[in-house]
Structure to design on (159 residues):
């Protein structure tokens, strides 16, 4: 969406506030220029706001149309929601990565591929973790597998 707004030369309203109305101390030429800038900003904000709203479902359109007066307000609200969702999904990925357990029911190759998939998702999500952390998680997962294998082999030896 931001790329689209940049192409239309409207994205600046998401970053800059409306220029201030000229004071009575400003020269007439300068006051006219500032008023033109205000009018342009208001027109561009109207277009930008409606382009953003046009990309939403009716439910969200009604909610944000009434709630937010300017395009920047809508943009900042959506951005904060997106960042919160992204943060929670990163926590979920890290949690799945740390809690991954090897089991006897599946082949080792299949489980290693699942683990690598989790690790790749973390890389794609730009989650930077210390190498020692990765080694610790991997070792703890394989130690769990090794302990269950040892228990099975001890049982077999007794039989």
């Amino acid at each position: 969406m931001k790329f689209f707004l940049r192409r239309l030369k409207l994205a600046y309203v998401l970053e800059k506030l409306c220029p201030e109305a000229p004071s009575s101390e400003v020269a007439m030429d300068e006051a006219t220029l500032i008023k033109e800038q205000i009018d342009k900003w208001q027109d561009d904000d109207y277009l930008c706001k409606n382009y953003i709203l046009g990309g939403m479902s009716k439910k969200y359109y009604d909610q944000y149309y009434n709630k937010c007066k300017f395009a920047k307000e809508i943009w900042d609200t959506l951005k904060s929601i997106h960042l919160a969702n992204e943060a929670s999904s990163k926590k979920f990925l890290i949690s799945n990565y740390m809690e991954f357990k090897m089991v006897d029911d599946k082949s080792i190759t299949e489980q290693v591929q699942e683990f690598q998939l989790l690790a790749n998702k973390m890389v794609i999500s730009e989650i930077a973790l210390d190498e020692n952390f990765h080694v610790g998680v991997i070792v703890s997962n394989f130690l769990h597998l090794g302990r269950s294998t040892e228990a099975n082999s001890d049982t077999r030896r007794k039989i």
